[in-house]
Amino acid sequence: MSAWATTVRSPVGVLDLTADDDGAVTHLLSDLEQPWDSAWWNLRHDPRPFVDVVAQLEEYFAGERTQFDVPLAPRGTAFQRAAWEALRTIPYGRTSSYVAQARAIGRPSAARAVGAANGRNPIAIVQPCHRVVGASGSLTGYGGGLDRKRWLLEHERRHVTARLPTA
Prior knowledge:
It contains six helices and six strands, in the order βββαβααβααβα. With 167 residues, it is an alpha/beta fold.
């Protein structure tokens, strides 16, 4: 169960983070996704357990980090956790589809269920559900809003392009 909480500002708005007693991130949600009720206010609000993840988020937003390596403790069903783990294999600056994600977890006919699992992803950005788009390449739902999804994808593409060797 989450024990710690903090709020940080980012280029995509306010982000709320929670962590368990061991410091593993349990939630990273935008201000549009806040499922918080009175339990949020009962958590210990302290930025100290979040020093590593906040530093890595700052590096990500500066275009200096392409992967996160902080301990995570998302809570969900075995299927949801498998779907969320698959998100972490989608390369920075690239996109994938729900069908491809379903195949990656060995459930090729479960694209809709994968979409539902992504919709419940409690650790946005770090478990990059923003990298999953519709089969046609169109932007589809994102808990933080399509404007944020678009911003995150453009941010990553911009930094991938900047890393390409010049002729």
